[in-house]
Write a structure and sequence with these properties.
The complex is a heterodimer of chains A (94) and B (239). Chain A is α+β, with helices and mostly antiparallel strands. Chain A has four helices and five strands, in the order E-H-E-H-H-E-E-H-E. Chain A has one domain: Ubiquitin-like (UB roll), CATH 3.10.20. Chain A has a five-stranded mixed sheet. In chain A, a hairpin with a 2-residue loop joins strand 3 and strand 4. The termini of chain B are close together. Chain B is of the alpha/beta class and 239 residues long. Chain B has one domain: Rossmann fold (3-Layer(aba) Sandwich), CATH 3.40.50. In chain B, strands 3-2-1-4-5-6-7-8 form an eight-stranded mixed sheet, sandwiched between helices. Chain B is globular. Classes of the chains: A alpha+beta (94), B alpha/beta (239). At the A-B interface, helix 1 and strand 4 of A face strand 5, strand 7 and strand 8 of B.
Chain lengths: 94, 239
């Protein structure tokens, strides 16, 4: 299935682009998407996508089709074909 | 009882009194309202300026430290001649000059364990614009405890975010990780352009309980509905 993944802040910097079209097996979960991205986007992005234990981090906000949830709560959610997933690591600049 | 508007105020706010669903009653509610702005730098200073111009009744501003030369690319309440002097004093002078009808209280401190409860307790609405996660989380915690709505915003390069409503369980708010980017003055770009829309959206989104994400590179404003708890209603003055 195809997904659209959009990056913000540090993830956008690490990816070097604002978005990707991703192909994943049907029934893939948010956690599987994060592991896929961590292995494809490189070392700069991986720490924002997975904890050192390989789990979805509390520090990442995941927005699926404009509904938000912390990554560690959404990790087991099954993604649907055509979903748009926005990844928002926390920022604090004022 | 909502405060009345003087002839001078009616004249000053004439253009916004024409706005549908705002009008004179909306202006009187705004005059009755009080807002804490945590830090009055690039983001918070813009918020304070807009709130003062719009005619909010009382502003409580909290910001420590003296003005530096490299603040002036974005801190629009400041001026070059104020370098080396307290930022909070310059902000007060500028805001009083902008709108003398607004009551302004200044605190030359940043949000801390020592002052958060007292400062949040002074106002109806809390605006967080601090560059440090510790201050933002502390402000959220205190806003939740006191049942005050929180509008929080932040920026990263040319991206800006606004979050309205607070998060009753701090676990609902993504916690910064060791890799989360803290305030980093040395890499601050000339990004006033990103702070302006952040500041303006703070004003307009104060009641919609959502998170906005906007970027000049992608002018679409994302409005993200939180999946989690409802937030307290904005306190309505008693008629």
């Amino acid at each position: 299935m195809k997904l659209r993944v959009e990056y913000t802040a540090q993830l956008r910097t690490a990816a070097g682009r604002p978005a990707d079209e991703i192909e994943l097996p049907s029934g893939s979960s948010v956690g599987e998407l994060l592991r896929h991205l961590a292995s494809h986007l490189g070392d700069g992005a991986a720490p924002h996508l997975l904890t050192s234990e390989g789990h979805a981090p509390r520090s990442l906000l995941i927005v699926i089709n404009d509904t938000a949830a912390p990554a560690h709560e959404a990790a087991h959610r099954e993604l649907q074909p055509g979903d748009t997933v926005l990844l928002m690591p926390p920022i604090a600049g004022g | 009882m909502l405060p009345h508007l003087t002839p001078d105020e009616l004249h000053r706010y004439e253009w916004q009194l024409w706005v549908r669903d705002f009008g004179e009653e909306g202006q009187r509610k705004l005059k009755a309202a009080s807002v804490l702005v945590s830090r009055i730098g690039g983001v918070g200073g813009t918020v304070a300026m807009q709130l003062a111009a719009a005619g909010v009744g009382r502003l409580v501003l909290a910001h420590a430290g003296n003005l530096r030369l490299d603040d002036l690319n974005r801190q629009l309440l400041m001026s070059t001649e104020g370098i080396g002097r307290p930022r909070i004093e310059a902000a007060e002078v500028r805001l009083r000059a902008l709108n003398p009808h607004v009551e302004i209280e200044t605190v030359a401190e940043n949000i801390s364990e020592a002052n958060a409860a007292e400062l949040v307790g002074r106002v109806d609405l809390v605006v967080g614009a601090a560059p440090l996660f510790t201050e933002r989380l502390l402000l959220n915690r205190e806003a939740v405890r006191q049942g005050k709505p929180l509008v929080d915003s932040s920026m990263y390069d040319l991206e800006g975010r606004v979050t309205t409503g607070n998060f009753p369980c701090s676990a609902r708010w993504p916690r910064p990780s060791a890799r989360s980017r803290p305030w980093k003055r040395s890499s601050s770009s000339p990004d006033s352009d990103s702070r302006w829309p952040v500041g303006c959206y703070r004003l307009t989104s104060a009641s919609c309980r959502s998170a906005l994400s906007l970027s000049p590179a992608d002018p679409t404003v994302r409005c993200v509905a939180p999946r989690t708890h409802p937030t307290p209603e904005f306190p309505r003055p008693k008629d």
